[in-house]
Design a protein that fits this description.
Layout (H helix, E strand, L loop, with lengths): L5 H68 L25 H22 L6 H21 L4 H22 L7
Helix pairs in contact: 1-2, 1-4, 2-3, 3-4
Amino acid sequence: MWNLCPLEVFKLLASIATPLVIVVFGFIINKTIQRQNAIAQRHSSWLTKWADDFYKAASAFNDSATSFLFLYLESEWKELGDKDKGGIAVDINEISPDLTRSLTLLQELNRGWYEMVKFFGFANDNGKDIRAAASDLLTEARSWHKNGAGDVISFEQKQITFNKNVKKVHAELLGLKDSK
């Protein structure tokens, strides 16, 4: 009954060993994939946390800039120029902002600047642009505080440029390509 030739024995052993080898390799591959997924998930969590923290800081900076602008626009202001072109200028003589509130908002902007600076180093591609855009907006606010007012359109454009750069840095921090 067990009188098999060596070739038959080899075939029998191969038919038994093949599924066992596949199970062992499958187990090893599965463990490797699980380990890599865990590493990727931890890395993704880190990216998401830092991107969310940056977004919160940038959003607070943007909100402070808007509050700062509207402090100066609470008083009466004139619309000069062609309405169709959206030309708005502020008459410095008609605005008398609350200096204490202005200083508080300026301090909020400075704090927002500091909160964002921590993240600029992680954005190798867009860090310099966001730094410049935030600096321009902060400089514009300081100028308004010093002069009592300023050009609304200029302020608005600097805020828009800042927000466009926030989008790019946020995408970069998440490891995504910006859709422009």
